[in-house]
């Protein structure tokens, strides 16, 4: 009887030692992490390679504007920063699709770039309603950019409501200019 118990204990110890040796981890080898250089390159040292086709329509972006800052080139669609909305609506109109696609392409190619989408409303309606409408408009533009593969971390959507509206508008043309989302790049 004692011999059987001793054999079982010995067998249990051998199995436990085998199980522990099977769980032994291999030491990690310290390798330096790969670092990708994202610093801006000048044309003299390294001309930019043409970007891969993402399928987005960027007909408004021309190659000539890529030599300077396309965000400030008045001939480049990226210098256009306002998306206008119909009265009491937060649906992005079709005519602004090329503008949104151009900004989406730029943001996708510049993963460190960040934008602030500032939703605005005209001064008709209550202050609270206009804040909500401005937010819905900025979120609508954000969703459009997200659908074009722009990361959430690059976009902040805020509302100014009627705070930035032209005061004392007397006609529809004036009100229409206040119903917009402004695209503001970080650092501008």
Walk me through this protein's architecture:
By secondary structure, the protein is α+β, with helices and mostly antiparallel strands. Helix content is 33%, strand content 12%. It has 4 helices and 4 strands. It has a 4-stranded mixed beta sheet. Helix 3 (127-147) links the parallel strand 2 and strand 3 (155-161). Helix 2 packs across helix 3. The longest helix has 21 residues, at 2-22. The radius of gyration is 29 Å and the shape is elongated.
Keywords:
188 residues, alpha+beta, 4-stranded mixed β-sheet, 4 helices, 4 strands
Topology:
Blueprint: H1 2-22, E1 82-84, H2 97-109, E2 115-120, H3 127-147, E3 155-161, H4 172-178, E4 180-185
Parallel strand pairs: 2-3
Antiparallel strand pairs: 1-4, 2-4
Helix pairs in contact: 2-3
Give a nutshell description of this structure.
By secondary structure, the chain is α+β, with helices and mostly antiparallel strands. It has helices spanning 2-22, 97-109, 127-147, 172-178, and strands spanning 82-84, 115-120, 155-161, 180-185.
Number of strands: 4
Helix/strand structural class: alpha+beta
Strand content: 5-15%
> What are the secondary-structure elements, in order, as H or E?
HEHEHEHE
Strands side by side in the biggest sheet = 1-4-2-3
The coarse silhouette is elongated
- Provide mean pLDDT, rounded: 81
State the helicity in percent bands. Answer: 25-40%
Q: Please describe the biggest sheet, giving its number of strands, its sense, and whether it closes into a barrel.
A: 4 strands, mixed
Instruction: Report the end-to-end length measured between terminal Cα atoms.
Output: 87 Å
Stretches where pLDDT is under 50 for at least 5 consecutive residues are: 41-57, 62-66
Indicate the radius of gyration in whole angstroms.
29 Å
């Amino acid at each position: 009887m004692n011999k059987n118990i001793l054999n079982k204990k010995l067998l249990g110890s051998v199995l436990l030692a085998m199980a522990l040796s099977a769980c032994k981890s291999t030491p990690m080898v310290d390798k330096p992490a790969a670092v990708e250089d994202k610093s801006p390159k000048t044309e003299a040292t390294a001309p930019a390679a043409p970007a891969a086709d993402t399928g987005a329509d960027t007909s408004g972006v021309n190659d000539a504007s890529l030599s300077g800052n396309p965000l400030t080139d008045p001939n480049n669609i990226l210098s256009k920063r306002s998306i206008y909305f119909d009265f009491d609506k937060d649906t992005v109109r079709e005519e602004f699709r090329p503008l949104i696609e151009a900004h989406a392409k730029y943001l996708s190619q510049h993963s460190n770039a960040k934008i602030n989408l500032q939703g605005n409303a005209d001064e008709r309606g209550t202050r609270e309603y206009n804040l909500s409408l401005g937010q819905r408009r900025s979120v609508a533009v954000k969703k459009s950019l997200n659908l074009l593969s722009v990361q959430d971390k690059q976009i902040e959507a805020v509302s100014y409501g009627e705070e930035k509206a032209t005061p004392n508008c007397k006609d529809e043309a004036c009100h229409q200019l206040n119903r917009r989302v402004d695209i503001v790049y970080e650092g501008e």
